[in-house]
Amino acid sequence: MNNHEFWIYLGIMALSTYLIRAIPFVLLRKKIRNPFIRSFLYYIPYTVLTVMTVPGALYATGHALTAAAGLIAAVFIAAKGKSLTVVAAGACLCTFVSELMLTIL
Amino acid sequence: MKDRTFLRGVRNGIPIALGYLSVSFSFGIMAAAQGMTVWQAVLISLLSVTSAGQLAGLQIMQSPGQYMAMLISQLTINLRYAFMGISLSQKTDEHFTGKYRWLLATFITDEIFAMACAEESVSARYYAGLAVLPYSGWALGTLLGALLGSVLPPLVMNALCLAMYGMFVAIVVPRVQKEKPLFLVVLAAALLMCICHYMIPALSAGLAISLCAVLAALLGACFFPAAEKEGVQ
């Protein structure tokens, strides 16, 4: 990616992200009542986070195995109701330990 | 009196800022790992302030000329902010209008929104206070991550890359445990994404994310329309 392309990408990202936040916030004051739209909107954050993680997270580290170890750790810690930071730290630690083991073995 | 509203916001923003610091640190590392310069990574964080959107953006930036994919992915992934904005606009006080909204809209993020929703009535001062530390933490974490990303050994970098995914898991899993329909919707999303990823490699990552997320949410809205009781409130 060259510099010129970076600026275009950045412009698209920044502008679309800003406008999608600002326009509804500034213009709309009415509540959405349609149950179909409301449930669609309710599900969207969770489906987005899921498709970003599965299977993408498996390729975030040097090895799919170590990433899987971190992910499984994250699921377990999150299931216990721990905070965002604790879950993230646990995932990193577990990945680190399994990477270390993989290097030694 | 006015200063105290602002300061109360600042204080409530501390835990969010700490979380953002660690997560954006992981974003900075990932950006550096992909050959971005430090200032490029920080600019992205300063102008976007969205974890999932930035991560998808980073993936798309790896291939040249995917402008349409970038636009579609950002709009889909960040669509939730539109509804948080609508929802927030019903809780703001009478002075939180016009220019304040244009200014503070940038700081509608999942966590800041959630914190603001705990208030009876949200003033512009409180919201600004709430946003100050998380926004700074987001930028600072990115800076540190991008700086250290080129210094830290690959073993440590690899492990830290998982922080952001850890945060995603931490948001989804506790809700999924409590709500069976949501569990099925999330499962459908994961399956769809795996199909796209492994069987339709021609589809770019950004488009696949948008497509699968929207499709799974539509399925959810069709089959479990009542599942959102305390959702977009």
Protein model, in words:
The complex is a heterodimer of chains A (105) and B (233). By secondary structure, chain A is mainly alpha-helical. Chain A contains 4 helices and no strands. Chain A folds into 2 domains: 1-30; 47-105, no CATH class. Chain A is flat and about 60 Å long. With 233 residues, chain B is mainly alpha-helical. Helix content of chain B is 77%, strand content 0%. Chain B is built from 12 helices and no strands. Chain B is globular, with a radius of gyration of 19 Å. In chain B, 55% of the residues are buried. The mean pLDDT of chain B is 87. The chains are: A mainly alpha (105), B mainly alpha (233). Chains A and B meet through helix 1, helix 2, helix 3 and helix 4 of A and helix 1, helix 2, helix 3, helix 4 and helix 5 of B.
Topology of chain B as a string of helices (H) and strands (E): HHHHHHHHHHHH
Large-scale geometry of chain A: flat
Count of discrete alpha- or pi-helical segments spanning 4 or more residues of chain A:
4
Integer count of domains of chain B: 2
Describe the global form of chain B: globular
Distance between the termini of chain A: 37 Å
Question: Number of folding domains of chain A?
Answer: 2
Give the rounded overall mean pLDDT of chain A: 89
Radius of gyration of chain B: 19 Å
Please describe the biggest sheet of chain A, giving its number of strands, its sense, and whether it closes into a barrel: none
Poorly predicted regions of chain B are none
Helix amount of chain A, in percent?
over 70%
Write the H/E string of chain A, N to C: HHHH
List keywords for this structure.
heterodimer, A: 105 residues, mainly alpha, 2 domains, 77% helix, B: 233 residues
Describe the structure concisely for a colleague:
Chain A has 105 residues and is mainly α. Helix content of chain A is 77%, strand content 0%.
